[in-house]
Amino acid sequence: MPQPPPLCRLLSRLHRRPPISQPRRAFVDARVKWIRDRALDHAVEKEKHLQPFHALKDLLLFPSSAASSSPSGPSFPLAFIASRAADLRLPFRPIRFIRLFPSAFIEELPPPTAGAPPRPVIRPTPALLSLHDDERRAFEAARPDAADRLLRLLMLAPRRRLPLCLVDRLRWDLGLPRDYARSLLPDYPDYFQIVPSTTGVGGALDLELVLYRKDLAVSAMERYAMKTGGYKKGMSLAFPLHFSRGFDLEKKVRKWLDEWQKLPYISPYEDASHLVPKSDLAEKWMVAKLHEVLHLFVPKKTEKENLVLLGEHLGLSPGFRKVITHHPGIFYVSNKLKTQTVVLREAYRRDLLVGKHPLMGLRYQYIHLMHKGKETDAKKKHSKSRIGAAHGSIDNGITAEDEEGEEEDDEDEDEEEEEELSAASGVDTEDESDDEHVSQSSTMEQRETTRHGTNRRVMVSN
């Protein structure tokens, strides 16, 4: 049988070649040096104990059969609060936690009845009641915004549904009220429905999207680009970059980053299954996805574990965790508060949010209330209260000296935990270069101030 001419064989081989796809990764993964950003660390650290504080506040002020009412506000038996300590995620003994915030919680010892020993109760202060009322009004005003945030998050999921337990976990970051399943979801039946989970786990529920709104399928990056004009789908968009002081990219990495920024921007709301895995374009889409998720969260930050749990439901490959540390100019990972928190850099100037959601303004007021009055309370630590003596069986006889010592131990544990998290993060660590401008005496003064319960002030040179 005659062979085809050489030219025909060549054309045949060219015809059988697969179509040219996106370029694969041009940058060789390297250990990215992690440099401490003290301002962003402070943005995380100043919210210490805020979530359990807020949970305890909600327990006191949301309707419950366990609460007793009086003209001065609802109250709860201390024993009941102790039984809910795990649900509230209290970091230590309930009575010790309550005593940390004398401007928010009042300890009372009602008179004994029928020969029974007195049962200590906890009630909110007028300041806490007032702030709670402000927050309720803010939730009511932000209902459409909260529904849109939750809708967008479901739109980011390829299956258009998320486990309800995961939504519960993200409730704080999404700015949803504690009772959102009763107070918010029923008012938006065209948006959401609660359905049985497809995981096969008995009793598990999912929150499912009912209506996909194309007008909301526009990312924060795209909205900003549209304001400047001339943007069209598929064009290149460069992410804002903000590095810690002292951070310097190698020349080859800088070159790769410049080229990576010029790649087309694929919306996180678009299907990216056609992208070549581990390609630069696929990585840019994953960054866009994480970037949009953090934009949906009112604090513009969240625990890394939340992103890990959310990632598999957003269609992200298992290696997306490396993407976070691969782009230190977009994301910052803080090791404060015994966990890892991913912060969206562009959303902060030093330790302050650039665009502050109304709920964040209220959370900062809660933080102020938490620290208010601690100086006065510190002067009373050497005197044992009448209530403390009455319910020593509940708090195990904790004295003022014990509480102060335990606070110092807790701070030491925070520092040790931060070192362990830094070592386990898989990146080289280094402090900011401007740390040398903070004198040793200033550092000691900050530590001493922190031990006495006042606001920690982080000094960052200008």
From TrEMBL:
Name of the protein this chain belongs to: (wild Malaysian banana) hypothetical protein
Compositionally biased region (Acidic residues): 400-421
Top-level taxon of origin: Eukaryota
Gene Ontology molecular function terms on file: RNA binding
Limits of the PORR domain: 36-374
Pfam families assigned to the protein according to its UniProt record, in alphabetical order: PORR
Region (Disordered): 375-462
Native organism taxonomy: Eukaryota, Viridiplantae, Streptophyta, Embryophyta, Tracheophyta
